[in-house]
Amino acid sequence: xxxxxxxxxxxxxxxxxxxxxxxxxxxxxxxxxxxxxxxxxxxxxxxxxxxxxxxxxxxxxxxxxxxxxxxxxxxxxxxxxxxxxxxxxxxxxxxxxxxxxxxxxxxxxxxxxxxxxxxxxxxxxxxxxxxxxxxxxxxxxxxxxxxxxxxxxxxxxxxxxxxxxxxxxxxxxxxxxxxxxxxxxxxxxxxxxxxxxxxxxxxxxxxxxxxxxxxxxxxxxxxxxxxxxxxxxxxxxxxxxxxxxxxxxxxxxxxxxxxxxxxxxxxxxxxxxxxxxxxxxxxxxxxxxxxxxxxxxxxxxxxxxxxxxxxxxxxxxxxxxxxxxxxxxxxxxxxx
Length: 336
Fold this sequence. Notes:
Blueprint: H1 9-24, H2 31-37, H3 57-77, E1 81-84, E2 89-92, H4 99-111, E3 130-131, E4 138-139, H5 146-155, E5 159-163, E6 166-178, E7 181-188, E8 193-198, E9 202-203, E10 211-213, H6 227-230, H7 235-238, E11 244-250, H8 255-261, E12 265-267, E13 291-297, H9 300-308, E14 314-318, H10 320-334
Antiparallel strand pairs: 1-2, 3-4, 5-6, 5-9, 5-10, 6-7, 7-8, 11-13, 11-14, 12-13
Helix pairs in contact: 1-3
């Protein structure tokens, strides 16, 4: 009797490595696309649209193998993925350090200073992205306020600072890097609720330190606090512009990417030949088949920049004020 050969460990390892590289190159991906693009998964029953027939025997076997591989990637390399039930897409979760890892990293960075690299006064160079002229050394810098904030959090003492011309008293919960800026999140006493402060916007007043620690009292960090959620900093959550409910037409291939970055709810778009309510002569351009996403915008500049990063795959269609914001900025770029 000839024994049936078992799974090849080397082939399985190579498949996992191929998948890890594949997902690292994409903001979102589907199981059908990934298993089709990576030949190591073999064949499975698929519909005319290329999607795997989930209730088929081959489709179910492939789905289990794919999920095991994602779990293996998370366990081996720390690369976690999240599944969106609405769009049926996967995305790579943002990297996150444990409390002990963050303390060790910040302590090390507070002591590192590499000669020959020019940094701004605020120490806001992006984490791990600056290199010297020889291109050989990676420079890691942090905001100059982090050491004080780290000590305050460790000892559970509130911090005092001035922000937007107002004195603040904050029970700091967590500090971290989001969208290339450093933030501190916590409970502000005057507001009586959670607040987010960007560290480079903390103001200096006379000769006193920008941040002081109030050692006369202590506080408790909420047990339910999830630091990875607190550091999901989005200007639309705390911007100071009048809220504007904005509709964007997004190419169907880029809806997952758009919503992962900006958020928003899916809505129905107006017909492609519908004129703007303001009486503009131009029609909404070729949006038949596109997907409508509605976003409550509180920070106009940030929203404009993020939409423009989508290139021709996203078009603001309402309200007119937001359409004009994007259009005028584009006109200004090409104006002679």
